[in-house]
Fold this protein.
Amino acid sequence: QKEVEQNSGPLSVPEGAIASLNCTYSDRGSQSFFWYRQYSGKSPELIMSIYSNGDKEDGRFTAQLNKASQYVSLLIRDSQPSDSATYLCAVNMRNNDMRFGAGTRLTVKP
Amino acid sequence: ETGVTQSPTHLIKTRGQQVTLRCSSQSGHNTVSWYQQALGQGPQFIFQYYREEENGRGNFPPRFSGLQFPNYSSELNVNALELDDSALYLCASRRPDGSYNEQFFGPGTRLTVL
């Protein structure tokens, strides 16, 4: 089992819809979880961090964490074409090692 | 813009050569991590430096080495380059209070090994 797994996609949603991105992780001791957005040819940009079970909202983005199920998700409401990018799930491991999933490519169609 | 800078932007080397990549962390950030991102994959953790010492390392061979300087800037050195070392190399910095390890990336250095 990979340490951080994401659906590779591609995921395509129409403009204005909700995009749902999922991630599972293997280390039960992980405490910090992050979502990064990466446009083609650019470096990852931090968009959400979450540390406690439940939901965390920031504008159109909501991160959800369920430590018992070892599951993290990101919801993007009112998706815009500018949200089209690869979304990376990252989990902080116990030895200062941040592990990333392979990313999910999202396309928002006008 | 995160305030993390990297140089050079692009680099072309041949197999067997050595390369040094540089990173300046965001103001006030004393921890720097390096990642390798191959095409179509997520970043892979190489190592982390804190107070000029390596304090975490991923599954990379010893020919990947680094330094951190008193001003918290950092270098990544790769010896005996292999074709598979072609990738985007990313530097990320973090605040001293940890902030639960929120890291901010620089623009990256694209390395091509021929």
Remarks:
- Chain A touches chain B through 24 residues (CB under 8 Å).
- The first strand of chain A starts at residue 4 and ends at 6.
- The radius of gyration of chain A is 13 Å.
